[in-house]
Amino acid sequence: MRTIDLSPLYRSFIGSDHLASLIDAATRAEKQSTYPPYNIELLADDKYRITMAIAGFSKDDVTIEVQENTLNITGTKNGEEKKADERKFLHKGISERNFERKFQLGDHVKVLAADMENGLLHIDLERVIPEAKKPRQIEIGSSRLLENK
């Protein structure tokens, strides 16, 4: 009996938990879509970068949307289909097919910027924890100060 593969739930969590990436590495399924290939980098404690290899796509072909905690990156090639049919390839190794890639973002992870250079799409992210959620130090004797006010 096979165990249940939970890797689709954990494979694209960013800013959530380091454990999710460890589980992903340990349970990665072979049949998952690998197009387009991507990297997720940890730049600093709360800063991340997603880099996707999208050769053949221009800025106009790519849409980046954030809705709730989901980052959705879509690439669509519209007018190139006729040009590709007219050309005759001896070998076609650059896949310019349409794609959609979704990433689940952790709480308080914000998309800062997106840039495309040399066929690579870079998306910078940062986890911004609100002041109310950050730990604060309580001084001993602070209850007396509140009573006097």
UniProtKB/TrEMBL annotation:
Q: Which family does it belong to?
A: Belongs to the small heat shock protein (HSP20) family.
PANTHER family tied to this protein: PTHR47062, SMALL HEAT SHOCK PROTEIN IBPA
SHSP domain sequence ranges: 29-143
- Keyword set for this entry? Stress response
Q: Which InterPro entries match?
A: A-crystallin/Hsp20_dom (IPR002068), ACD_IbpA/B (IPR037913), HSP20-like_chaperone (IPR008978)
Origin species: Alteromonas pelagimontana
Q: Which domain of life is it from?
A: Bacteria
What Gene3D superfamilies does the database record attribute to this sequence? 2.60.40.790
**Name this protein carries in UniProt:** Hsp20 family protein
Q: Sorted alphabetically, which CDD domains does this protein's record hold?
A: ACD_IbpA-B_like (cd06470)
Task: Cite the Pfam families for this sequence.
Answer: HSP20
